Amino acid sequence: MLGRQPSAQDPTRGLPHHTSSTPHTAAYRSSSIPSSQIPAADSSSKSSQISHTMYLLVQHFFERPQTKTLEGKANMVDGAFQYCMRILRSHMETAIIPDEAVLAEKIKKHLTRREKSLDKAIRFSNLHQKLTGKSSLTNQWASVYFLLALSQQTDRLQGRESRESVLSLGLQRLPTMKTTSKRSDLRTASPSVVPDTTRNGHIHASTSAATHTKGLVPEPSGIAESEWLRDVVYVFQGIDGKYMKYDAPNEKYAIDPEVQVTKPEREILLKLVEMGWLYRQVMEFVDKHKNDTSEGLIRQSFCSALAREMSDYYRLIAILQGQISPSGENTTASPLTLKRLYVWTQDPLKRLRIMGVLVELCADEKGGALLSLIHNYVHHGDPFISQFITNLMTEVSKPFFQTLMRWVYEGELDDPSGEFYITQDSKTPMKDFWELRFSQREEMLPGFLDISLATQIFSLGKSLNFIRLACKDTKFVLSRSQQGMHTEDLFVYGANKALTTHIQFLYRQTNHQALNILVATYKLKEHFNALNRYLLLEQGDLAQYLVDAMGKELCKDARQIYRHDLAAALENGIRLSNARYDNPDVLRRLDARLLEVSAGDAGWDVFCIDYHVKEPIDTILSQKTMRVYQRLSCFLWKLKRVEYALSSTWKARMRLAQNLRETSVYPDLHACLLTWAQMNHVIVQVQYHINFEALASTWADFHPCLDDVNQDIDGILKMHKTYLNTLLRRCMLTLRKKNRKGAALQNVVDSVLSFQVAHERLHRYGTALARQAMDTLQPDMRERSFDLSVIQAVLPDFNVDEEDDDEETLNSIRAQVDECQKKFKESVEDLKEVLLEADGDAFRGLIVRLNFNQFYFTGKGV
Q: Which of 22, 69, 354, 371 is placed for a possible disulfide with 48 were both Cys, Cβ 3.0 to 4.6 Å?
């Protein structure tokens, strides 16, 4: 594959084929007679007609007055005629496609550009049309191209006196010019016909290597050209020659300074030894990495592909050696020259340059990163480079596609060297299987894989592992692996379109199977319903029973509450509510849970309902997801606590305020009742917003997605995450205002609970005053004036005499109440600003209900 190579069996194949000379041409070469004495050509011999016509053409070129002597003119005509005949007998081919119309246009442009006039171009066009109509000239394109080549050669030789210099220059480039010669002399004196090697070893004639040099024949050096050729071939194999050796410190080849070499020879030798330098670089890389298994299969495949390319290079070396010393001939001159060798090695040199660049770039890369570096050169503007890289990528990418094929059909990842763009952590527990067990490495993603396709491949393999490991369904994976035995032709480099279509089909099929197992076998939708009903308190009768049954118990200190008591109350609530008709498997997963207790926490702060999930449902409902549900559940229970505090003691506080109408604390009690009414209004409207505009509407948007057959596990996880984020945003108003700590709604709830403590302290003080007043009344008056039975049952005893100073105690209580009222007003103001800055569609109803009488906010923004 390293270029078109000559055949080793026939080293002379491709050289000019010399036919026997006709009588006329023989006479022309051996004599110097004038053109008037030339005999006519035999019309029966086509070769004789060609020779006769060529002689007349050459003679026409030399009919100039500058040629003074007849003898000199005859010698020039004879030499030029022999030169032209050798050209005609050669097998040289042009480098362009034979297109007569294109050639005619090129000549017209040439005439227009050189003469600066359109007259000659128009004249040529008319002559070309006449020539086209003639049938006597069989190869018109070649004739016109020959004339164009002569004209261009003349243009390049500006400063010459006449066009005879074109042919005379050609005569000067010939090594010998004898009118009579043998076959071997003709071969030596022939123009430099360069063999152009092909992949199968056949040799075709190419353009003359003489065009690669600027001057005429240089002065010969003291070393024969065959010795230089032998040295160059050694250098091609990385071996030091007799006159050229490798300079290791400078990393280059150098010619022995004691050897005398001409400048043209030095230039061409230095150009040739580039192949040897590139060969050393490539082979050093191959020898270093081909047996190193720690760097992965792709690196070894790359070395193998390079070594395969070098095998064709060795074949070229053998052919070149045969050309230097042809078998069966004992000649002093070699059919191979340095110039011919330079032309022969252009294609192999190009391949070696590409390999040298790849070796340098890929020195520290492996796996998918190495494939990406090589793939970047596939879209090169040079078709030769593009095709070479494509062939190389086909070999190098085989290990990658084998790993990919096993991943998409079996879910197995056999990548000990870390070459694939997907990695796995086998120590990850099953509860974190989907999120943490597998991951992607962007740096190892090959450039020929689209990102969307790579994501589908990643999800496809994860789904197969999920079906096999979490769902314990091995039949589907086994059938999929058998299906992969018939699609190996798709997993090759260059079949991206077919591979993409097939991957998408496997992706849909596998995801449908995984979701079908989750929904049909493991009741995924029922678990989502259970979370919505029990953790988010949508099962209203059960939630109300728990509040009524455990309200007093939860008001105690958290360290005085036991989980088994709460679990028993939860079981009783399930039996006494509509929850008893639910799926038994769902009810068994419900449990009462106590969170971590901190100093000063009440039972309401640590109690929540828990829901246990197992494999494979924990893939969707992971620990992270369940923590969000617990956060929402705790907040909703906190709202239930505020509602309980507002409603359970309302009657007792109203009665106490009426009984203390004539005391000094009555204005304080009345102000507290007004603030309490405001708080009750805010909490009721917030609960309405959460229950109907947050929980219900968000669930209505999420629930239908579970029935979408086109969804995959990643899609369900993404939508579920969006669902939870929406709940947090709408329920807890997690949009924070600048320079404010905590969520706005959370601050409102905390301010209500703080006010409850201060209000309770004021009521205890008022209760103590009421008891003192009752002691001074008659028994019949006490029964008609006061009814403290409810107050005594709800509020603990408070003895005014225990305080040092009653006035100081009342002032401290008033200061605490005022602080709590101020805090509540600030939290409501903060809530107002957050609602106005948030999405109006989601919170417009809450704004309207809170501010139905424009008590809290006014203005156009409401």
A: 22
Cα gap 610→633, rounded to integer Å: 9
What interhelical angle do 840-850 and 713-731 show, nearest 10?
30
Query: Cα-Cα-Cα-Cα dihedral of 849, 855, 856, 859, to 10°?
Result: 90
397/421 Cα distance (integer angstroms): 13
Q: The whole model's pTM is what?
A: 0.62
pLDDT at 238 over 80: yes
3-class secondary structure per residue, 115-132: HCCCHHHHHHHHHHHHHH
The pLDDT tens digits of the residues spanning 510-541 come to: 988 888 898 888 999 999 999 999 999 888 88
Tell me the C-alpha distance between 742 and 758, whole Å.
22
CA gap 737, 257 in Å, rounded: 83
Phi, psi of 292 (to 5 degrees): -90, 100
- Structure tokens given for 659: 């009984």
Cα(695)–Cα(693) distance, integer angstroms: 6
Q: Which residues of 398-407 are buried (b: 16+ CB within 10 A; e: fewer)?
A: bbbbebbbbb
Tokens read off for 230: 């032998």
CA dihedral (503, 504, 510, 511) positive or negative: positive
- The Cα–Cα gap between 803 and 602 comes to 26
d(CA 490, CA 496): 8
Q: What's the residue count for the chain?
A: 862
Residue 438's beta-bridge partner residues? 424
